[in-house]
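Researcher: Here's a chain I'd like modeled. Treat it as a single chain, no partners, no ligands.
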Amino acid sequence: MQPDSLPPLVLTSGDPAGIGPEIIVKAWLARTQQACPPFYVIGDPRLIGSRARTIGATVPIAEVVAGDAAAAFGNSLPVVPLTHGLRDNPGRPDAGNAAGIVEAIDRAVDDVFTKRASAIVTAPIAKKVLYDAGFRHPGHTEYLAHLASMQTGRPENAVMMLAGPALRTVPVTIHIPIAEVPAALSSELIVTTARIVAADLSRRFGIDKPRLAVAGLNPHAGEDGAIGREDADIVAPAVAALRAGGIDAFGPLPADTMFHAQARAAYDAAICMYHDQALIPAKALAFDEAVNVTLGLPFVRTSPDHGTAFDIAGKGTARADSLIAALKLAARLAATERAAA
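Model: Modeled as a single isolated chain. Structure tokens:
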């Protein structure tokens, strides 16, 4: 099934003080040249139009309901208006925008569950802005899992993947201080994460028998306990449990030798023990093309691999490459899942 036979993608506008509004404009302007799948934005039409003018772009904006977005996409940027207005101050994060930022996420999740949208693509947010307004979830991914659980009535485990043309990486622990990683790691957490990765690689990426390379936590994967016991006591038993369950996993591997080209050819995704161990190689190889994919949810969600970039917001220099890649990947994953259903 081709992506254009599905409902359009829904794109949240992200933090309005960042580059979200302008990369959305640039993605729509590149829709034909880059073969972007149809999408609509949940955001503030006035702000998006103002930001387009700020960066010297001319973009016709259509205020629509989700059901009319696909028809409008060819000739105008479809925007479903928020009920909360947003303040247009590029580069100046504002907790007063938090209600609108969260509203866009809430409504996007509702749209995929009601099949008005085929998948969610989220523009970057700044967690501190939300925290300052009383937001109590660690981040985007965790909040999406919470909203999904509210819809399904069961716990939903979300896993973060960075997917680029040459590498897919998954951090087992995510947004916690590095000093807390050893205590947070457990064999059970590694197994749960890897099972979700294997299932989604099969269901959404179309990989029949995913191969998972599991990184060690310590230098040289602990060197048989000489440089820490975590790899022998936590990581290795997790790998053994995964293999016993029929998943083609291997490791723990020294992280400093598992990301060169020859090593990458041996696996479909790398399971890493902490945030930077996963994100540094992914971004180093394909910063403008890598996509943040949330696995384990009952809907497809992707996002650019970069943040809000407040320092360049409103200057017209932000590139939409990663957002365009996120749109294309979301459409492809949704289509693969639909075809396999």
